[in-house]
Amino acid sequence: MRLCSDIRKLVAASLLWIAFAQGVSATTVEPAKDLRVDPAPCLAAALARDHEKTETACGALIDNAKTEKADRIKALIARGAAYERKGMTDRAIADYDGVLRLDPAQADIHNARGELWRKKGDLPKAVADFAAAIKLNPDHVAARANHRSLAQELERLGALKAIAGKPSFDCATARRKVEKAICANPELADLEREVHVSYVRATREDKTPSQARKLRREQEEFIARRNASFGRPGYDLQKAMKERLQQINGIDGY
């Protein structure tokens, strides 16, 4: 009798468990579908250079939490390149930042980001990126060329900074009023030096003897006229120097 009672209790407990399990099953939310985004549209848009589709398709890939690392890197590179071609420098840099956070060994992206930093005028960051690209890939032709040309530019800027606001002549020995006026005005000093440098450069170019004499005579006449005319009503020293600079370099500046 006790056995039958135990069996009845066991059956009742089993029925309760089954009912509970069915209830849980009925209220449980179905597993979420796989939200991975197909990378093909992003890559196809990038290859077609369709910037708008690239931003949309690659953006969806980048923003999806289930996107694989390799696909996310490709999408960031594609969208960054699209931004770069559209002149959206800051956004392109941000995407390249994202690439390098995921994979710091991307030499091409270091070089690409360096070119953007250079475009923005942040030369120290540009140098650092070019150097990083070369360290990762010593044979990276573009990075080496960029690094070399930027080093030359920095050297030139350093030289220009040293002579900024200084004319071609020594202000300590200046005696004429026009020379003292030039020395007192950094803008005029830079312009005077530019005229002189352009004249010297022009004299070193291949010219016939008659052309060389003509150039020398014109320069002497300009300086004599400048010295004699300065301070007279209507004489504009800055205008006169700009006109002489254009005369030496030509309309296009060469």
UniProtKB/TrEMBL annotation:
Gene3D superfamilies: Tetratricopeptide repeat domain. It holds the Pfam family TPR_2. Transmembrane segments: none annotated. TPR repeats lie at residues 73-106, 107-140. InterPro entries: TPR-like_helical_dom_sf (IPR011990), TPR_2 (IPR013105), TPR_rpt (IPR019734), Ycf3 (IPR050498). Residues 1-26 form the signal peptide. PROSITE patterns: TPR. Keywords: Repeat, Signal, TPR repeat. PANTHER family: TETRATRICOPEPTIDE REPEAT PROTEIN 6, UDP-N-ACETYLGLUCOSAMINE--PEPTIDE N-ACETYLGLUCOSAMINYLTRANSFERASE SPINDLY-RELATED. This is Uncharacterized protein. It comes from Bradyrhizobium lablabi. The lineage of its organism: Bacteria, Pseudomonadati, Pseudomonadota, Alphaproteobacteria, Hyphomicrobiales.
